[in-house]
Amino acid sequence: MGSQHEENEKTSSNDDAPQQDAASIADVSVEVSTVDHMLQKLRRKFRKTRRKPKGLKRLLAYLLNIPHIAVITTAVVFVVVVIIWSLLWVFIFRRESNTGVYFAGMFRVAQVEFIPEYRQAESHEFASMANKIQHVVSNVYKMSSLSKLYKQTVISDLSNNNKGGVLVHFWMVFVVPRLKRPAMCDECIGAIFRDSVHTSLRNRSSVGYLLGLPVDIDSILINSVQRSDYTSSVTGSQCVDKLYANLPGARVPLNVFSSWGGVSCQMKLTGVPGFLIRLTITSFHIEPSDCVNDALVVYDALLPMRGRILHRLCEPTSSSFSIVTTSNVMLLSFRMTNGNKSFRGHFEAIAEEICMSQIETRLEPEITGQIYSPFYPSMLPPQCSCTWKFKTPKSALGVALHFQNYVLKPKDLKGCDSGWWKVNEMIFCGSYVGHRTVFRIADHSPDVEFRCSSRNSVQPFQASYSSYNVSQPCPESHFLCNSGLCVEKSRRCDGLDDCQDESDEVLCSRPTKNCGGNRPLHPLFVCNGETDCHDGRDEVNCTQETTCSAIRYQCRSGSCILKKNAKCDDVPDCQDHSDEVDCACGRPSPLKRVGSSKVTERIVGGVNSGEGKWPWQVSLHFAGSLYCGASVLSSDWLISAAHCFSKERFSDPRYWSAHLGMLTQGSAKYVAEIQRIVVHEYYNAYNAFDYDIALLQLKKSWPPSLSPLVQPVCLPSSSHTVTESHRCWVTGWGYRSEDNKVLPSVLQEAEVSILSQNDCKKIHSLVSPRMLCAGVPSGERDACNGDSGGPLSCQAPGGGRWFLIGIVSWGVGCGRENLPGVYTRVNKFTSWIYSHIS
Ligand code: 4AZ
């Protein structure tokens, strides 16, 4: 077109001025003649038989010609569609491709005096201060690289702060194209604000001036939040209550009920400046659903900031406990769905604890007193510190700290997440365990410093202290365990974990069956269900009542009998017959023995199983794919390994499904949704998967009609002992070998032997008393990735029931020679399991 216009211009500039009008007429005529010429051409081409119409009439006639009407209509429709599409794109799709990204933040404005009017968002004083702060925050982001995405800041609260000045809580909204969303990281948003303050820091203090506003850089915290958190607070569609504890120590009651209406409420608690807040929960009646439906989240802030979660409560409770903040504000965020749910508790302002004391121990090794974690028995806040300066009466005496369920270990490269300890100049990390320990300090005047080091609130601890003789820590007749406990020397190598860390059972020769000697028979051989002495003396009077210990079966009445494996052996041994109740378990009745073809070696040395052979075997699927195994414990509970659910993404029960009564993948008799996942509270991924056990509650019980293809496995009693005549099998759909990462579709089974704990520890140094090793020396039969959480099932001798002895946990590779697999030792968790499922 451009070139054609230029040509026209060239033509007219060559003509004389007086000729201009004529020229333009000529131009028109040229154009008409051109159209006419074209029409003629076209007509000649398409309508050779018709007579030629003249001028405009001809054009009209041409346009009204039926085929031309069709072409024109199509063109018009096309143009209209294009216009509508463009409008839709501009107003709907383009708008949809943008999304709001929401942040909650807080910082301290220093050198500004807090006035009570700031508590009222409707007050003039609040509005004027909030406007000023809003302007400053907006300015920071409008000047930043995110200026195009920044939408607005809303100041939600101004509160008095323990460090002085005013603590500001605010919301921030960005409107971001969907594709750019991942770039909106919490760190980046926080860093922009911190950078601005940083450039204006003065006098080496932490306070910088933004448009004259003194902002404490150390107090800046910004977290992304859910849109619903923002809308429910800002638009006020849900309840937001503000409560104050104006007098230290005065309790302010908190009661929330959701009788049929359902509740989604936030309570903002503020205490006297300089004090902390202690929330006491006396009861919380909700439906357990793993925080999906009902939950209470307690924040160490006034807005729901992820980095400031003190505690999440999603299980019903009627035993009272308390949580302490690190400053004078707390937020309670309730979610209670329809039903008769309720929360009862109170809060109060409490003074910060000055946790420092000088302690003198006595000459005698008896317990002299107790030290407690700060705010005991409240839970420990994320920040706290304590110093205990001990002194013993003699330089030969050290200090022993006796803990109930806590252990100190030298700090390694990983951080401490359950308490940081400095003993003289050595650093230790604390962690929670399920047994007693004694921490011995070989110094007569040690300084012990403790600092809270967890992200959330954690269990409190207490320790009894005493003196001890550094050169002889235990009494003459006792043995010093690695756990710090002293146990009688006669208990060494008795097959029992008296030390709680099995250190009394290392370097022991295999127990001998001294049946005729004058020394008593090794306790492991007594009443273990196997005739170890040819005259059978080890298996007599097994149901007589005796003192209780870890290897004696405890009847429901509380009395103990010698018989170790009394549970569900079809013989009533306890006087109350309690050993034979709840025994509908561990008796598979295979339908057809397909598989077991020794020719096709699968997983690590396994073979195809048969329909109904392992009716407790479960295939656990995460987001639709096999991820772990599990075992059926009852009509609504499964048991698996904690490590299957440990990462945050894997802890949401909604992504999991349990496939029951299945031989070949895809042919489950019942696919269950998961209601909640209970991971053992002491599970520790950093400590070689110690306490690797988890329970899963099903949303709906499997129907009894599925029996016998679906059936529970028997749970061993805590005294259960596996003997040589037990046969043990590991089953699962995991990898066939370390190198062949193909998952078999048919359930695989492999027979393995249980190693002695001594042999197991020689191979895997990190084995704890809560683990056992099983395999074959050649390594050819083993569990592998994908089998985790699945069962190691052992059958009682003489074709008895099958018990869940182990849960597939970890190993070094798969099927390697002399590297047996490691399993969770289930009988160590019997009471923990019953405490959750019954
Ligand atoms: C796993 O990662 C796994 N060979 C399970 C068992 C073993 C190794 C790894 C034992 O699930």
From TrEMBL:
Cellular compartment(s): Membrane
GO cellular component: a single term: membrane
Domain of life: Eukaryota
Compositional bias annotation for Basic and acidic residues: 1-13
Region of interest: Disordered: 1-21
Annotated TM spans: 59-92
Entry membrane topology: Single-pass type II membrane protein
Principal localisation: membrane
The Peptidase S1 domain, residue ranges: 603-838
CUB domain sequence ranges: 239-350, 355-468
Biological processes per GO annotation: proteolysis
Ranges of residues in domain SEA: 99-227
InterPro entries listed in its UniProt record: CUB_dom, LDL_receptor-like_sf, LDLR_class-A_CS, LDrepeatLR_classA_rpt, Peptidase_S1_PA, Peptidase_S1_PA_chymotrypsin, SEA_dom, SEA_dom_sf
Residues spanning the signal sequence: none
One function term, GO molecular function aspect: serine-type endopeptidase activity
Keywords, alphabetical: Disulfide bond, Glycoprotein, Hydrolase, Membrane, Protease, Serine protease, Signal-anchor, Transmembrane, Transmembrane helix
Annotated PROSITE patterns: CUB, LDLRA_1, LDLRA_2, SEA, TRYPSIN_DOM, TRYPSIN_HIS, TRYPSIN_SER
Disulfide feature: C474-C486, C481-C499, C493-C508, C515-C533, C527-C542, C548-C560, C568-C583
The protein's name: Transmembrane protease serine 7
Species lineage: Eukaryota, Metazoa, Chordata, Craniata, Vertebrata
